[in-house]
Amino acid sequence: MDLIKKIKEKKEFSGLPDSLIEKVLTQRIIKNKSDEEKIKLSRAFLRKYFGVFLTNKVLKGKDEKVLMSHISSKKRDYSSFYEKISSFVGKNFRSVVDLGCGMNGFSYPYFVKVFGEVKYIGFEATRQLCDLQNGFFDKSEFSDARVFWGDLFNFEQVKGILKSSASPKLVLFLQVVDALESVEPNFSKYFLLEMKRSLNKEDVLVISNPLKSISGRNRFNIKRRWLEDFVKENFNVIDKFDLFDEEFLIAKGI
After folding, report:
1. Domain definitions of the chain by residue range
2. Eight-class DSSP state of 64
3. What is the mean pLDDT of the chain?
């Protein structure tokens, strides 16, 4: 049985890279199960981190109003967010790279108001979300904005995007760490170190993690001190703040 093909028979997983699903199948709690259990457990995992975002309202989104329907973006006031970032690091950027962007591409009009028509490069694993945002860019005639489809675990692809984007650049890494760690513990450390090697000193990195569960009912008690300590050890941390039930770190390379 082709397990990857079987998992992707569900529409919500059909747009995910095979390489990502293959990595999920190798998880310790999944790899020794029967094929039927592997499919069930893998779909449950993928639904938690990817499928949950593909609601009908999101899939029918045509403009920035869709941000109010997407679970990870609806709490953000993007105008305030981008103004907050600019208050720490200024507005002199030539590009923005949004890794694991979700639906953030729909916030590009707000970004332009703060930073100007800077080139926007999104990177997202769910093909449906890539197609929606690229359709929005085309309709709105945002020629400097594009979302590319791919797997963050394939760092060569990520590195290519980082290397080809003009500096100084703003790199967004918003609510991605938990998903990476759930698939492969400590991968975030490897990812951040590899990212650092691909950045110039004038580039700025913004990392965020949720302070509440997706439902919003439960506040996380676990402090991600390991992440903050790791970033402080390997980057120059400019500031740390909480906003929209997220904790943010702003950093530059050392």
Report:
1. 3-49, 63-253
2. G
3. 88
